[in-house]
Specification:
Largest sheet of chain A: 4 strands, antiparallel
Structural class of chain A: mainly beta
Number of helices of chain A: 4
Distance between the termini of chain A: 36 Å
Radius of gyration of chain B: 18 Å
Strand content of chain A: 35-45%
Number of strands of chain A: 28
Structural class of chain B: mainly beta
Largest sheet of chain B: 4 strands, antiparallel
Strand content of chain B: over 45%
Largest interface: A-B, 38 and 63 residues
Distance between the termini of chain B: 5 Å
CATH class of chain A: Mainly Beta
CATH class of chain B: Mainly Beta
CATH superfamily of chain A: YVTN repeat-like/Quinoprotein amine dehydrogenase
Strand order of the largest sheet of chain B: 1-28-27-26
CATH architecture of chain B: 7 Propeller
CATH superfamily of chain B: YVTN repeat-like/Quinoprotein amine dehydrogenase
CATH topology of chain A: Methylamine Dehydrogenase, Chain H
Shape of chain B: globular
CATH architecture of chain A: 7 Propeller
Oligomer: heterodimer
Number of domains of chain A: 1
Chain lengths: 427, 311
């Protein structure tokens, strides 16, 4: 509700500009906002997960079970469940009502990342180190179904590769000896917005599109020759960014049936040759931001239509790893590599001084004031109350809420984590 | 429209300031100048008396999960009570004069307090620490309220202004002043409408005003019958009654009446007697949009009313 009263230019900003906060609670290795943007989950290097209340910047809940660094976090759309993967070979599903693990799955090696299937709290896909990617259904606690997903690409999907030469070379021909030596391994997973397809990126530059109903690869996209580091799907579902080891971000437009991919933009810094650590789209996929490997300590924001760099977020004194974008509050957070701190960029709204005195007005330049005809007229009180009555005829509705806030996001009811006051932190 | 379900004579030894119904609809809490808070079942059974404040208690508020109660007092402190044990679990100190009003956000994580030291403070309840101080008023704060999404804080002050603040930044978003009459009487109570598009303010000139704050306009003025003021001396609590398809404004007056106005026509639809002695009705609190209402008079007479089918 507050947005409607704030400076419209500040509210309409597409991305934050100012480093406003740093949060320090252990070494943070993964950060993720819930859908409403009122809680931030931060996974720590020691396996602890803390839930931070964005309004107070206080830890509202501490989740302890993992014993190695958290590699990824994923909120359910209701905000009640949190999926976490860790280097301790485990994926946990937490119920934030109780703060307990409700389901878990154990694998044979550390987990690169996991993604919850939207609207299916108990289903997830995960990329496992040195093993095949998995699709897991944990609905039945006593019978957790783990299906391995083949990392081998199938016939490449339309408009995929960057050149014919590459496309020919990348067809998994049986006679090619060199290809046989190096087997495909899935390094990262992503899921489509509707939850029907899983995207799996391999060490040899392929993205496999897997249909979640059949768990079969329906198409593969050759992106490059080096490993795929991460895949980011835009909240609108129409765009995808593939971050690969060849120091390039490739932006694809995705067809609604997930069978056609068209390369829209390539982002690379040819001079500095920077690798990108983590990528995130804005809510309307008009912008995207990325953290960079190495000596630059900044976050780059590009406009995605033309591929132009529009903003560099500065202020951190170390390399930034994980980024997440809080759409409703228009802020970006990133974790620092050395300190594990969380850096927080937001929009700073200027105080309008005329809000403090309603009879004052902020004007651009001096004007000659012209007195209104009735400005100092005496109004006798009887007539005044008649006039007031006449003015107050309009119907008022005190119950029906606005559907959307001033940024265009609908008001949603998200799960509220019960605040417990009698326990100390983590007890 | 309402039938009397419960009437409890005063058990407090000094004037009573407020009554609140817990969000789960099971308990009532009354606060008094006798430094105590009493916790009741909705059936009128005294559960426990909370001792701790060293001066009179001005306002209480249940946490949204009904597990805790916050209270503010003339002893400059705010206390948070665990209702299962009756113990004080937090004492919030920072205000330098009487604390008059307080409110939780819908999550129960933030508490706002308004004080006679002219400041509004925003507290992180869990840490028991003051996050922000909003100092924009030039007289005692009589009342504070949250919008439903807890993004705006409304405050009413004896300086005659209603101000709206942004919770996040602490900036003043709006100032509402009724200058049609030339003078500004102290604002004694403010309340957001359920959809937070309007603010209802009570002034000590005896009127209630419904503000369309986006347009800086009073859209409705509610008056007591026969030209009497609603309130001239006390901060009397107001409510929006929204159950059963009705939209009504509800407040006590200083002569023992509980008045219900039709929100659109501004006519008085119903008057209930809240006090045998005609004492001011300090607070009327509603549950489920007015299915149940509880009232308390300055003398401590507590009454609970239930909505029935009759018109």
């Amino acid at each position: 509700m507050n947005l409607a009263l704030l400076d419209p230019f500040a509210v309409a900003s597409d991305f934050p500009e100012t480093l406003t906060e740093t949060l320090s609670y252990g070494y943070s290795s993964a950060v993720k906002f819930n859908q409403k943007g009122d809680y931030l989950a931060s996974g720590l290097g020691d396996g602890t997960i803390v839930i931070i209340d964005v309004e107070t910047n206080n830890t509202i809940m501490v989740l302890r079970d993992h014993v190695r660094a958290i590699t990824s976090l994923c909120w359910s759309s209701s905000g009640r469940y949190l999926l976490s993967s860790s280097r301790d070979w485990k994926v946990n599903l937490w119920d934030l009502k109780t703060g307990k693990v409700v389901r878990f799955a154990v694998f044979s090696s550390p987990i690169w990342n996991c993604v919850m299937i939207p609207d299916h709290v108990y289903q997830f896909a995960a990329a496992v180190v040195d093993d095949e990617a998995v699709f897991v259904d944990m609905e039945d606690e006593s019978d957790i179904k783990i299906t391995q997903l083949s990392p081998d690409p199938v016939e490449s999907v339309e408009g995929s590769s960057e050149g014919n030469e590459e496309r020919e070379a990348s067809v998994p021909a049986t006679g090619n000896k060199r290809k046989r030596l190096k087997k495909h391994v899935t390094l990262t997973c992503a899921v489509s917005i509707d939850g029907r397809y899983v995207f799996a990126g391999t060490n040899r530059g392929w993205v496999n599109v897997i249909y979640t109903d059949t768990l079969k690869t329906i198409g593969s996209l050759k992106v490059c020759d080096s490993n795929i580091k991460s895949i980011e799907i835009a909240p609108t579902g129409e765009r995808m960014i593939v971050n690969s080891g060849d120091k390039t971000l490739r932006q694809y437009s995705v067809s609604s049936d997930y069978r056609e991919f068209e390369l829209e933009q390539k982002y690379q810094d040819v001079v500095n040759k920077i690798q990108y650590n983590s990528v995130k789209f804005s809510h309307d996929s008009e912008y995207m931001c990325a953290s960079t490997l190495g000596s630059t300590h900044d976050i780059y924001i590009w406009e995605t239509k033309m591929g132009s760099l529009v903003k560099i977020l500065e202020g951190s004194k170390e390399e930034l790893i994980e980024v997440d974008w809080n759409y409703r509050r228009c802020s970006i957070v990133a974790t620092g590599m050395d300190s594990g701190m969380i850096y927080w960029w937001s929009v700073v709204v200027p105080q309008k001084w005329s809000n403090l005195a309603p009879d004052f007005e902020e004007i651009e330049e001096n004007i000659d004031y012209e007195e209104k005809e009735d400005e100092f007229d005496m109004i006798d009180s009887d007539r005044d109350s008649d006039r007031m009555d006449a003015k107050e005829q309009s119907e008022v509705d005190v119950v029906t809420r606005e559907e959307k806030d001033a940024r265009g996001f609908p008001f949603i009811d998200s799960f509220v984590i019960d605040s417990v006051l009698t326990e100390t932190d983590g007890a | 429209m309402y039938s009397l379900a419960l009437s409890v004579p005063s058990t407090h030894t000094s004037p009573v300031s407020t009554v609140k119904i817990s969000p789960d609809g099971k308990f009532l809490a009354t606060a008094s100048a006798d430094k105590t808070i009493k916790l009741w079942t909705l059936q009128g059974k005294l559960v426990r008396t909370l001792h701790g404040h060293t001066e009179g208690v001005s306002d209480v508020e249940f946490s949204p999960n009904s597990k805790y109660l916050a209270s503010c007092s003339d002893d400059l402190t705010v206390r948070i009570w665990d209702l299962s044990t009756g113990e004080t679990i937090k004492i919030l100190k920072s205000h330098t004069y009487h604390v008059n009003s307080l409110r939780f956000n819908y999550k129960g994580s933030i508490l706002i307090t308004g004080s006679s030291d002219e400041n509004i403070r925003i507290w992180d309840v869990k840490r028991g620490r003051c996050l922000k101080t909003l100092s924009a008023h030039s007289d005692a704060i009589s009342c504070v309220d949250f919008s439903f999404d807890a993004s705006i804080v409304a405050s009413g002050s004896y300086d005659g202004l209603v101000r709206l603040f942004d919770l996040d930044t602490g900036q003043c978003l709006k100032t509402l002043i009724d200058d049609t009459r030339g003078t500004n009487f102290p604002v004694s109570y403010v309340r957001f409408s359920p959809n937070a598009k309007y603010v209802l303010s009570s002034s000590l000139d005896g009127y209630l005003r419904l503000w369309d704050y986006m347009n800086n306009r009073v859209v409705k003025t509610y008056k007591n019958a026969d030209g009497n003021p609603v309130a001239e001396k006390y901060s009397l609590g107001t409510n929006f009654i929204t159950c059963g398809g009705d939209q009504m404004i509800n407040s006590g007056d200083e002569n023992g009446h509980i008045i219900f106005w039709d929100i659109q026509s501004k006519e008085i639809r119903l008057v209930l007697e809240g006090s045998e002695k005609g004492l001011p009705i300090m607070q009327v609190d509603s549950y489920k949009g007015g299915e149940v209402i509880a009232s308390v008079s300055l003398g401590g007479e507590m009454r609970v009313w239930e909505r029935d089918g009759s018109k």
